Amino acid sequence: MTVVAEHTATGGGDATGGDVAAAARRAMIDSQLRVSGVNDPAILAAMAAVAREDFVPAALRASAYVDRKLPLGAGRALSPPLTHGLLLTEAAPTSADKALLVGGGSGYLAAVLAPLVGSLDVVESEDALAQGTARNAGRWTCGPLAAGAPAGAPYSLIVIDGAIEALPESLAAQLAEDGRIVTGLVERGVTRLAIGRKSGTQVAFLTLAEADFAPLAEFALPRRWSF
Predict the structure, then answer these.
(1) Which residues pair with 139 in a beta bridge?
(2) Catalytic site residue from 36, 63, 79, 95
(3) DSSP readout, 40-67?
(4) Could you state, in order of their start, the residue ranges of all structural domains in the chain?
(5) Which of 26, 50, 128, 207 is deepest in the core (most CB within 10 A)?
(6) What is the pLDDT of residues 20-52, one digit of tens each?
(7) Where does this protein have coiled-coil stretches (predicted)?
């Protein structure tokens, strides 16, 4: 693995574009998040403070607050605002948490999560995404997502920004006793929000509502022949 850098988040844009984006951000809070059960004041404030349009390709800036996945390239996508809001609500981050974000992507979720936790490590497997994190938050490592960031373990909170079919032992080992992990979980072709707790060496997941996560190829189960 290669440690990339430690970053802090900022926003930008011209005055007119910034006004439009700010209005879209307020609409995201009021029309997508609050009405769907995302009401934690700290989470709403963090999402309101981060310019989501700064974390998507230039051609997609006008769609930054639409509630759907947006392609980032390299087969990766930015999860919809509501998916991120529900993920953070279930994670219930606090300043006491030592957190790991798996799948840093363009850095949006890292920028939202960083002020909510005590410390944040981020792992991203795509060099093009990890190297483009000048505005982003957390200590970034470029390496396989499934490998996590063992140098910083154990973590009280692990957030996986995407859908997995199985949790590798390498990540389970980095979760502290009674630590929690939140992710999208693929079950029989349906992607749901899930939270896991660690007891001993095992992580048991509770699946919740359906959520629009992009599947992460590194966490797919081996395909079996069927007749």
Answers:
(1) 6, 121
(2) 79
(3) -HHHHHHHHHS-GGGGS-GGGGGGTTSS
(4) 2-219
(5) 50
(6) 999 999 999 999 999 999 999 999 999 999 999
(7) none
